[in-house]
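FORM 12-B: Structure-to-Sequence Request
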C-alpha cells in the first residue's frame, strides 16, 4: 500500500477535496493507497513516513527523499489530469 500525505493551509478543506479525488483516481488505476491530510506547517515532522507529498499551498520545507507534487490543479481542474498522471508516476 502506498501512503500519500496531502497538505493544505489548515489540513481540512482543500486537502479533503484533493484526498478524495486522488484516492478515487488511483483506485481506478489499480493502486492501493492511503491518504492522510495535514497542515502545511506540520509536513516536516510527518512526511518521512509517506511515499509522496501533495500540497495545495506554497511549501518550501524539507521533505527528505519524499517527492512533492503541487496539487492546486486538482482543485481548479486546469491541468488536473496531468497532475494525476504525475502522482501516479511517483507511486509506480
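FORM 12-B RESPONSE
SEQUENCE OUT:
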Amino acid at each position: 500500500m502506498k501512503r500519500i500525505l496531502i497538505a493544505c493551509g489548515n489540513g481540512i478543506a482543500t486537502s479533503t477535496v484533493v484526498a478524495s479525488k486522488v484516492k478515487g483516481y488511483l483506485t481506478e488505476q489499480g493502486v492501493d493507497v492511503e491518504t492522510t491530510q495535514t497542515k502545511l506547517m506540520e509536513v516536516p515532522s510527518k512526511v518521512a513516513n509517506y511515499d509522496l507529498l501533495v500540497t495545495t499551498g506554497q511549501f518550501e520545507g524539507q521533505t527528505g527523499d519524499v517527492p512533492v507534487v503541487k496539487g492546486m490543479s486538482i482543485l481548479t481542474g486546469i491541468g488536473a489530469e496531468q497532475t494525476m498522471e504525475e502522482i501516479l508516476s511517483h507511486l509506480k
